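Hey,

The postdoc asked me to send both predictions to you directly instead of through the lab channel. I've kept everything plain text so nothing gets mangled by the mail client. Protein one:
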Amino acid sequence: MLPGGSGPGQDRWRTVGRAAVVLDGASSFTPALVDAGEYVDHLMTRIVQRLPHDRVNLRQVVADSIRRTADELKLPARGGPSSTVLIASSESGRLKVLALGDSTALVRTTDGSLHRVTDDRLSAIASNHRKAYRARLSSGTGYDEMHKRILRALQEEELKWRNRPSGYWIAESDPEAANEAVERDLPADEVEWLILATDGAQRTIDHLGIPWNEVAQMSSSELEDLLRELHRWEEVEDRAATLLPRAKVHDDKTIVVWHPLVGHKV
């Protein structure tokens, strides 16, 4: 994991038994409530506590973890900090993957197929604002005041549709969001490798055309080098985001690589 700025960032990852969890936190619309870092720390603690006892029903694990976190932090409905959730769990010969929010799991199966498991409903919200800021960045405007205003309008529109039917679903204060998560269930013996990635890493890797099969073979130190290289490319080659339009220069970046067949985790 490589933070996008100073401090520990808002991404988190953990492994517990034969399961891996990745969270990507987002700040509250009312920052005085709870810091996003505190939210993901609490949520991660609750998820890893539950996983060993109920790895079959991942949605229930996430729902209970959201409920307990919201109670502990006294979060109101909508407007508080939020987080994507990625969980991969190997149980009784099956590999189960859950995605809530726009982080991505990539699963390579023995037939050579690459499966992407993600929840892209957020990208459909306020699409006019997304197109506007990306078009401006592509034209070379950089991160100016108008960019900030468009982002604020985008975030305000997103908030209206958070955890609502026909909107998008995310871990925040409503445990019902877990029931809307995207799930995939595969035979474990047909999986060559699995990668869990937050969007800060996934989008830049996809843009640069780095093969995910190469990423899957990297050691821990090589993964660290990769994240630093993505950071360097954003800073030096695309500082104004003309090549890869994005909300900010750097986002937190997390990659977890898991080889279920050999029990090797990086």
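Protein two:
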Amino acid sequence: MVIREFVEADWAQVWPIIREVAAARDTFCYEPDLTAEQARGLWLAPPPGRTAVAVDEDGTVLGTARMGPNRPGPGAHVSTASFMVAAGARGRGIGADLCTSTLDWARGEGYAGMQFNAVVESNRSAIKLYERLGFTIIGTVPAAFEHPRLGRIGLHVMHCPF
């Protein structure tokens, strides 16, 4: 597997991943009936951000990451990132590789740290991964996420200083 910058030809494989994750309504604050055009606007990061893909040796996109400044202006020294892995590729360490790659990118770009604004508290595997990579939960917004099975649950804000 290789993690590289997104190119336009990747969209045909990235869009189904985003569509599936959004429709599940259990990890992302995206509308479940998101259109491809809306997804492009949300996922393809403008400079100085970056969108990346994890690609298998046969060219199959296994996952994708979006990264860049968390906020503009005075908040632009802290980065943020989001990750999605194709359902058939989960459990193979692709999310961990994408997250590590994103942290390396942010450090290389001179960011002071990385902040995740909305990690669904029931997404325990992601939380464990992020904590293993140096993130801590700095707060939880109670009942901020409408989970399809669990009802209203919290969204964690997580931070990793560099």
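Summary for protein two, as requested: Residues 79 and 106 are 7 Å apart (CA to CA).

Thanks,
C.
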